[in-house]
Design a protein that fits this description.
This protein is mainly alpha-helical. It contains five helices and two strands; from the N terminus they run αααββαα. The chain has a two-stranded antiparallel ribbon.
């Protein structure tokens, strides 16, 4: 982590900056949590942490990650009971459209996001910026 420079972080944030302001803010919060936890720990097991440097619980991480996931245009299904029958409803978000349940949520990501992708994105950006592969390993 000591080898990560401000340029590395900016390189990782450039693609996100072209998305909505809320997505950008959420990713910045996630990056800050990761780096804060990495700074607080001396092992290579990095954990997403809160502002106090304490690891997030599963529920806290899930809530944080929802800020990103809810903005993807991935098709979603849910079930509702109507007249005693289970009815499946499918929502197909359109890029740039506001969510029906929350007008503040704008579908701004045209790909599915997973926490594992964040790891790969970080590693890829390190390699693109010229960091030695053995160091990245």
């Amino acid at each position: 982590m000591a080898d990560v420079t401000l340029d590395d972080i900016q390189l990782a944030l450039v693609p996100v900056s072209q998305k909505s302001a809320s997505v950008y803010k959420s990713v910045v919060i996630l990056y800050k949590s990761i780096f804060r936890a990495a700074k607080a720990t001396s092992t290579s097991d990095y954990v997403v942490a809160n502002r106090d440097g304490e690891p997030l619980s599963y529920t806290q991480f899930k809530r944080l990650w929802q800020y990103i996931v809810t903005r993807t245009v991935k098709e979603r299904s849910y079930y509702r009971y109507e007249d005693g029958k289970r009815i499946k409803h499918t929502v197909t978000p359109v890029l740039g459209e506001k969510a029906a349940h929350n007008g503040r949520v704008v579908y701004s990501l045209d790909f599915e996001v997973t926490p594992h992708q964040l790891r790969h994105t970080y590693i890829t950006n390190l390699l693109y910026s010229g960091v030695d592969p053995k160091t990245v390993q």
